Amino acid sequence: MIQWQTRYETGITDIDDDHRRLVALINDLDSALAQDGDMGLVGRVIDALVEYADYHFSREEALMAEAGFDDLAGHVESHADFGQFLGAMVGGCILNPSRETAARIIDYLQEWLVDHILVEDMKYVPLVRGRASSLH
Ligand SMILES: [Fe+2]
Ligand SMILES: [Fe+2]
Known about the structure:
The chain has four helices and no strands. The protein is mainly α. The chain is elongated and about 50 Å long. Helix content is 82%, strand content 0%. Helix 2 runs parallel beside helix 4. It binds fe (ii) ion (2 copies). The site of one fe (ii) ion has 5 residues, from helix 2 and helix 4.
């Protein structure tokens, strides 16, 4: 389980709400897997997570583009790599729906999300926040 921490906060409400939602979905996935044998439920939570991650990435990329963030391309690539890796793992999980596969996906998701927020997302925060405060 990922415990939300204040150091994950960007101070940008929409982004923090999205990140909290993603953390909640990853934790839901953990609970779903803990419920014996219900791989159908695990699959549905993975679907919801993939969909929400997609939505969040688009929203974040639009925000960075608007603010003129100089490493937009690198950040978009990181999101795309994640999408591809997740897609491949989900494909593997459909072919071989085992608890081990699902547990590996969860481990990867937990590590990737926290690391991405702390390292990559934090890079655009000063620019996006500065821009928001200059509009008031
Ligand atoms: Fe991001
Ligand atoms: Fe993000």
